[in-house]
């Protein structure tokens, strides 16, 4: 590429809350210490290659609206131009990570072998670019939902040849993730579900998916990949019913197939909403089970009812998410991946930068608010007090007893329950002091 895509945009700096500069951070100060760590190390931001560089602005009613120098995305030269633009944006934003699907970064070949050659050439190109920069790979993943071969699923496909193709594809994506020192490997089962039970053997499909994920874990150990394996729940879209409905469903699945100590969760804000949950609910389910891994940060439109993947812009919502993440000790291998895309009328290079700047600032504000709520301690104290009855030895002994002894105690009149306020509004008022 002769001219750079983001040519006139300077690297984004932290200028503080009084800044009027639309392309400056007002809250994201990477070096500010929040709960003992640099903000950059708490948030661990990542750019999603698919939304920012592979999506062309189409929707179900119309084709591409964006005209980028790397369109159409069907040859290797343009794949390199796209990579040049991506790394230019990483430099401008100064964030620490990015994420990709194989199909985002390379043109599809006529055969598996040709697609792989294309993919490996771009992974080499990424490797060269990453040598001279701080940017790392938060996670890699395989796109096993766009091409028509995956229309009936990947690991859950009724055709064993598609299962084979899926296994070979994930192997190559895990190899590439390992090679680029990725922190995690993600599996989102975009078509692992069904449209109608009339043609679907659900028990068999779930067994195949369980076996597949066990092979992923075996392969991780075989190649010595140190990162975490993460699955990403989503209840529907594109499949009518998706097997990985939400965090609780995934955890049940992982336990059934003996994977609870090997696989964690990548939770997405918009997917939580689609499942009828809040984002913090999903995070709390995962942290309670020790299976929290990483987040896909975005926001859903609350009226439309589909996965709109907008950039986050709701500080109170984001603050509660980070509150639960910080309470559980913060990220380890995971981070905050912006699984978010521009609206299709946002045509300019500057829109891409502004979207990320705004999102990073919203997350920084949310993180600071979450840390302040924890440091303040009133929410934590109120919760502890609510369960204080359980701190007595009698209450603990009850957990080791049985129904007959408990019944005898209740019958003797020793047990007097006095209902107490849950104080929800008072707690919500406390939250509102910080967000
Ligand atoms: C789709 C989605 C994916 C996964 C990675 O809704 O969230 O982009 O994050 O495959
Ligand atoms: Co999504
Ligand atoms: Co996602």
From TrEMBL:
Task: Give the matching InterPro entries.
Answer: Xyl_isomerase-like_sf (IPR036237), Xylose_isom_bac (IPR013452), Xylose_isomerase (IPR001998)
Compartment(s):
Cytoplasm
User: What are the binding positions for Mg(2+) 1 in this chain?
Assistant: 232, 268, 296, 339
For the protein in the UniProt heading, the enzyme class is isomerase
Where is Mg(2+) 2 bound in this sequence?
268, 271, 307, 309
Keyword Transport set for record: no
- Which BP terms does GO give this entry? D-xylose metabolic process
Reactions catalysed, semicolon-separated, are: alpha-D-xylose = alpha-D-xylulofuranose
Q: Which UniProt keywords apply?
A: Carbohydrate metabolism, Cytoplasm, Isomerase, Magnesium, Metal-binding, Xylose metabolism
The cofactor named in the record is:
Mg(2+)
Record's GO cellular component terms? cytoplasm
Q: Where is the active site?
A: 101, 104
User: Which superkingdom does the taxonomy of this entry point to?
Assistant: Bacteria
Cofactor note, please? Binds 2 magnesium ions per subunit.
Database matches in Gene3D superfamilies: Divalent-metal-dependent TIM barrel enzymes
**Assembly and interaction partners:** Homotetramer.
Return the similarity comment.
Belongs to the xylose isomerase family.
Q: Which HAMAP family match?
A: Xylose_isom_A
This protein's name: Xylose isomerase
- The organism's lineage? Bacteria, Pseudomonadati, Pseudomonadota, Alphaproteobacteria, Rhodobacterales
